[in-house]
C-alpha cells in the first residue's frame, strides 16, 4: 500500500470514528437517561425509536442563525468551539483499537501526548468565557478553568502510575503489558483517573462551570447554531475519549477472549460500557457545589493518586 | 439508630442512588404516547363544559358564581298562553350562553351550582385553538359537547331514592299506598330525614295531586332523570322556580 493511501485510510477511519461514536453515545444517553427516569426519550425522528434524533438536531443547529454578540471579541469567540473540539480529534488519532498496530498513529510518547493535548480544553473554555462579554459566561469559564487545572493533577498522577507499571508511555505498549491482576492493583488509580476524567469533560456531577440552573449555560451561554453544536459535539467526543483512555490504560484495551481477531470489538465494547457508566452517573447524582468539587479533588483524589504512585513504585522496585 | 448506621457506611448512599436509577432502567416507562395513543382518563375527567339548553332557566347562578366571570348570558322573556289558565305565563328564553375557555379555570362551580343540571362535565379536551378568541364557545358549541357527556354514575343501592323517583312510585301506587313505597325500602337508616315525612300524609287529596306544592325543590324540572313525570317538562308550569 502506498504511503498516501495508507495515510488516507487512517485519517478517514479516525474521522468516521470521530463523527459516529459521539452520535452513538449521544443517542445512548438520550435513551438511557430517559428510561432511567421512567420516560421513553425521542421516539419520532427516523421512525424506529427516534434513532435519527441527533441527526435531526444537527440539521436544526445548522439552520439556526449564527449570532455573535456585539461586545464579543469576535475572532476569539468564533475560534473557541474549534479549539474545544480539536484536541479530542487529535487524541482519537493515537488511541489503539486492536493488537498489531490497529491504531491511526502509533506514538512512543502517546500517553504524554494525550495528556498534553487534553489540557488545551482549558484554553477553549477560557476563550469562550472571556470573549462572550457576558458575566455568566465569565463566571462559568473561571469555574471551568479552576476545575480543569485542579483535576489535571490527579489525572496525570494516576496516568503516571499506570505508565510506571507498564514501563512505557506508548498506549499500545501499555495495553500490551497489561495483566488482569492490574485491575486490582491499579484500581485506585483507575477510579481516580475516571473521576478526574469526568471532571475534565465537565460532565455531571462535575458540571459546575455549565450549571444551567444558576449560570444560564456557563461559557456556552452566548453561543448559537453550529458553534453551539460544536461545543455539544466536543462534550460527547469527550465522553468517548475519556471512556477510551480508561479502557486502554486500566481495563486492558483489546484483551479478552479471541483478542487476536476480535480485539477491536473488545475495545469498543469496553468503551461503550464505560460510556454507559458515565451516563449512569450523570442521571444519578446531583451537581457538586464548587467547594465540594475542589475539596474532592485536592483532599481525596490527589492524595489517593500519590499513594498509588508510591505503591506502584514500591512494587516495581521490589519485583 | 438505623439512619445513623446508614450514614456511617461511607458511599452507601451513592450506591443506593445508582441502584435506583438502574432499577428504573429495567422497568417499563410510564410515558403515554398521547397523539398516537388516546390517554387513559379517569371516568369523570374535567375536559370541557357541555350545555343542555332545554334545562337552562336563565337563573344566572352559574354566571354569578363563576370566580373569573367567564360565563356570559343574555335572555328575553316570552309570553306563553296556556289553555285554561287565567292569564298568559312568562318564561325566559336563552339568547346567548357563552363560556370563555381562555379564562375558565375548570373549577366546576357553575356545574355544581346549576339547580337544573343544565351544565355537565365532558371528558373531551382537544379543543385547543390557534386564536384565543376561538376559545369563546357559544351555546351551540357548548350544546355540541353534550353527546360526549358520560352517563351519570349509578345510584347507590343503599341510598335514599331521588325525590322524583319517590314521587313517581307514590303516584303509580295511588294515594293509599303512599307510605308503602317508603317502607319497602331496606331501612338502613333508622328514620328517613324529616324533609320527606311531611309530604305523604298531606298529599292524598281527591285529585291525586298533579304537582305537589309542598315540594319547593327542583323535582319537576330536573331534566333527563325526570322521565316518569311527563307534564313536568312542559315548560311554563314547571317554572315556579327561584332566582330570576
Automatic annotation (TrEMBL), chain A:
<keyword id="KW-0812">Transmembrane</keyword>
<comment type="subunit">
    <text>NDH-1 is composed of 14 different subunits. Subunits NuoA, H, J, K, L, M, N constitute the membrane sector of the complex.</text>
</comment>
<feature type="transmembrane region" description="Helical">
    <location>
        <begin position="7"/>
        <end position="26"/>
    </location>
</feature>
<keyword id="KW-1133">Transmembrane helix</keyword>
<comment type="similarity">
    <text>Belongs to the complex I subunit 1 family.</text>
</comment>
<feature type="transmembrane region" description="Helical">
    <location>
        <begin position="153"/>
        <end position="175"/>
    </location>
</feature>
<dbReference type="Pfam" id="PF00146">
    <property type="entry name" value="NADHdh"/>
</dbReference>
<dbReference type="InterPro" id="IPR001694">
    <property type="entry name" value="NADH_UbQ_OxRdtase_su1/FPO"/>
</dbReference>
<protein>
    <recommendedName>
        <fullName>NADH-quinone oxidoreductase subunit H</fullName>
        <ecNumber>7.1.1.-</ecNumber>
    </recommendedName>
</protein>
<feature type="transmembrane region" description="Helical">
    <location>
        <begin position="296"/>
        <end position="315"/>
    </location>
</feature>
<keyword id="KW-1278">Translocase</keyword>
<keyword id="KW-0874">Quinone</keyword>
<keyword id="KW-1003">Cell membrane</keyword>
<feature type="transmembrane region" description="Helical">
    <location>
        <begin position="228"/>
        <end position="251"/>
    </location>
</feature>
<feature type="transmembrane region" description="Helical">
    <location>
        <begin position="75"/>
        <end position="97"/>
    </location>
</feature>
<keyword id="KW-0520">NAD</keyword>
<keyword id="KW-0830">Ubiquinone</keyword>
<feature type="transmembrane region" description="Helical">
    <location>
        <begin position="109"/>
        <end position="132"/>
    </location>
</feature>
<feature type="transmembrane region" description="Helical">
    <location>
        <begin position="263"/>
        <end position="284"/>
    </location>
</feature>
<comment type="function">
    <text>NDH-1 shuttles electrons from NADH, via FMN and iron-sulfur (Fe-S) centers, to quinones in the respiratory chain. The immediate electron acceptor for the enzyme in this species is believed to be ubiquinone. Couples the redox reaction to proton translocation (for every two electrons transferred, four hydrogen ions are translocated across the cytoplasmic membrane), and thus conserves the redox energy in a proton gradient. This subunit may bind ubiquinone.</text>
</comment>
<keyword id="KW-0472">Membrane</keyword>
From TrEMBL, chain B:
<feature type="compositionally biased region" description="Pro residues">
    <location>
        <begin position="189"/>
        <end position="216"/>
    </location>
</feature>
<dbReference type="Pfam" id="PF12838">
    <property type="entry name" value="Fer4_7"/>
</dbReference>
<feature type="binding site">
    <location>
        <position position="104"/>
    </location>
    <ligand>
        <name>[4Fe-4S] cluster 2</name>
    </ligand>
</feature>
<keyword id="KW-0479">Metal-binding</keyword>
<feature type="binding site">
    <location>
        <position position="110"/>
    </location>
    <ligand>
        <name>[4Fe-4S] cluster 2</name>
    </ligand>
</feature>
<feature type="binding site">
    <location>
        <position position="107"/>
    </location>
    <ligand>
        <name>[4Fe-4S] cluster 2</name>
    </ligand>
</feature>
<keyword id="KW-0520">NAD</keyword>
<comment type="function">
    <text>NDH-1 shuttles electrons from NADH, via FMN and iron-sulfur (Fe-S) centers, to quinones in the respiratory chain. The immediate electron acceptor for the enzyme in this species is believed to be ubiquinone. Couples the redox reaction to proton translocation (for every two electrons transferred, four hydrogen ions are translocated across the cytoplasmic membrane), and thus conserves the redox energy in a proton gradient.</text>
</comment>
<comment type="subunit">
    <text>NDH-1 is composed of 14 different subunits. Subunits NuoA, H, J, K, L, M, N constitute the membrane sector of the complex.</text>
</comment>
<protein>
    <recommendedName>
        <fullName>NADH-quinone oxidoreductase subunit I</fullName>
        <ecNumber>7.1.1.-</ecNumber>
    </recommendedName>
</protein>
<feature type="domain" description="4Fe-4S ferredoxin-type">
    <location>
        <begin position="95"/>
        <end position="124"/>
    </location>
</feature>
<keyword id="KW-0677">Repeat</keyword>
<keyword id="KW-0830">Ubiquinone</keyword>
<comment type="similarity">
    <text>Belongs to the complex I 23 kDa subunit family.</text>
</comment>
<feature type="binding site">
    <location>
        <position position="66"/>
    </location>
    <ligand>
        <name>[4Fe-4S] cluster 2</name>
    </ligand>
</feature>
<dbReference type="InterPro" id="IPR010226">
    <property type="entry name" value="NADH_quinone_OxRdtase_chainI"/>
</dbReference>
<keyword id="KW-1003">Cell membrane</keyword>
<dbReference type="InterPro" id="IPR017900">
    <property type="entry name" value="4Fe4S_Fe_S_CS"/>
</dbReference>
<keyword id="KW-1278">Translocase</keyword>
<keyword id="KW-0408">Iron</keyword>
<dbReference type="InterPro" id="IPR017896">
    <property type="entry name" value="4Fe4S_Fe-S-bd"/>
</dbReference>
<feature type="compositionally biased region" description="Basic and acidic residues">
    <location>
        <begin position="157"/>
        <end position="168"/>
    </location>
</feature>
Amino acid at each position: 500500500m502506498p504511503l498516501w493511501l495508507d495515510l488516507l485510510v487512517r485519517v478517514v477511519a479516525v474521522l468516521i470514528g470521530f463523527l459516529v461514536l459521539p452520535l452513538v453515545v449521544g443517542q445512548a444517553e438520550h435513551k438511557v437517561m430517559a428510561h432511567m427516569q421512567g420516560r421513553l426519550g425521542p421516539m419520532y425522528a427516523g421512525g424506529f425509536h427516534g434513532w435519527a434524533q441527533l441527526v435531526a438536531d444537527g440539521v436544526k443547529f445548522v439552520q439556526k442563525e449564527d449570532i455573535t454578540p456585539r461586545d464579543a471579541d469576535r475572532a476569539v469567540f468564533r475560534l473557541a468551539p474549534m479549539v474545544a473540539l480539536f484536541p479530542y480529534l487529535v487524541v482519537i488519532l493515537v488511541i489503539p483499537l486492536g493488537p498489531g498496530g490497529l491504531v491511526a498513529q502509533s506514538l512512543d510518547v502517546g500517553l504524554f501526548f494525550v495528556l498534553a493535548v487534553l489540557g488545551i480544553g482549558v484554553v477553549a473554555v477560557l476563550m469562550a468565557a472571556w470573549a462572550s462579554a457576558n458575566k455568566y459566561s465569565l463566571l462559568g469559564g473561571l469555574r471551568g478553568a479552576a476545575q480543569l487545572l485542579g483535576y489535571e493533577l490527579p489525572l496525570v498522577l494516576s496516568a503516571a502510575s499506570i505508565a510506571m507499571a507498564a514501563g512505557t508511555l506508548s498506549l499500545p505498549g501499555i495495553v500490551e503489558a497489561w495483566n488482569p491482576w492490574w485491575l486490582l492493583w491499579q484500581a485506585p488509580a483507575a477510579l481516580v483517573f475516571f473521576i478526574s476524567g469526568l471532571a475534565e469533560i465537565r460532565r455531571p456531577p462535575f458540571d459546575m462551570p455549565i450549571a444551567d440552573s444558576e449560570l444560564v449555560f456557563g461559557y456556552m451561554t452566548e453561543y448559537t447554531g453550529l458553534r453551539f453544536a460544536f461545543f455539544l459535539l466536543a462534550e460527547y467526543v469527550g465522553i468517548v475519549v475519556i471512556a477510551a483512555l480508561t479502557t486502554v490504560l486500566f481495563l486492558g484495551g483489546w484483551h479478552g477472549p479471541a483478542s487476536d481477531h476480535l480485539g477491536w470489538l473488545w475495545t469498543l465494547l469496553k468503551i461503550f460500557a464505560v460510556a454507559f457508566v458515565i451516563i449512569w452517573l450523570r442521571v444519578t447524582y446531583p451537581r457538586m457545589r464548587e467547594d465540594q468539587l475542589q475539596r474532592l479533588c485536592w483532599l481525596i483524589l490527589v492524595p489517593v493518586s500519590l499513594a498509588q504512585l508510591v505503591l506502584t513504585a514500591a512494587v516495581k522496585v521490589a519485583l | 439508630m438505623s439512619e445513623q448506621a446508614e450514614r456511617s457506611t461511607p458511599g452507601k448512599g451513592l450506591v443506593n442512588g445508582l441502584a435506583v436509577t438502574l432499577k428504573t432502567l429495567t422497568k417499563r416507562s410510564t410515558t403515554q404516547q398521547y397523539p398516537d395513543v388516546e390517554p387513559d382518563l379517569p371516568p369523570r375527567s374535567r375536559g370541557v363544559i357541555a350545555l343542555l339548553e332545554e334545562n337552562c332557566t336563565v337563573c344566572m347562578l352559574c354566571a354569578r358564581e363563576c370566580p373569573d366571570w367567564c360565563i356570559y348570558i343574555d335572555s328575553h322573556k316570552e309570553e306563553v298562553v296556556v289553555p285554561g289558565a287565567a292569564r298568559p305565563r312568562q318564561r325566559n328564553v336563552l339568547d346567548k350562553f357563552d363560556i370563555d375557555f381562555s379564562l375558565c379555570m375548570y373549577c366546576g362551580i357553575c356545574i355544581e351550582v346549576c339547580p337544573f343540571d343544565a351544565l355537565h362535565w365532558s371528558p373531551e379536551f382537544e379543543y385547543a385553538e390557534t386564536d384565543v378568541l376561538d376559545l369563546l364557545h357559544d351555546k351551540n358549541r357548548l350544546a355540541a359537547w353534550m353527546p360526549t357527556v358520560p352517563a351519570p354514575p349509578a345510584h347507590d343501592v343503599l341510598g335514599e331514592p331521588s325525590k322524583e323517583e319517590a314521587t313517581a312510585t307514590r303516584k303509580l301506587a295511588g294515594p293509599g299506598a303512599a307510605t308503602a313505597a317508603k317502607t319497602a325500602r331496606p331501612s338502613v337508616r333508622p328514620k328517613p330525614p324529616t324533609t320527606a315525612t311531611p309530604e305523604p300524609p298531606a298529599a292524598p287529596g281527591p285529585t291525586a295531586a298533579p304537582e305537589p306544592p309542598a315540594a319547593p325543590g327542583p323535582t319537576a324540572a330536573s331534566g333527563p332523570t325526570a322521565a316518569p313525570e311527563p307534564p313536568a317538562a312542559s315548560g311554563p308550569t314547571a317554572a315556579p322556580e327561584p332566582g330570576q
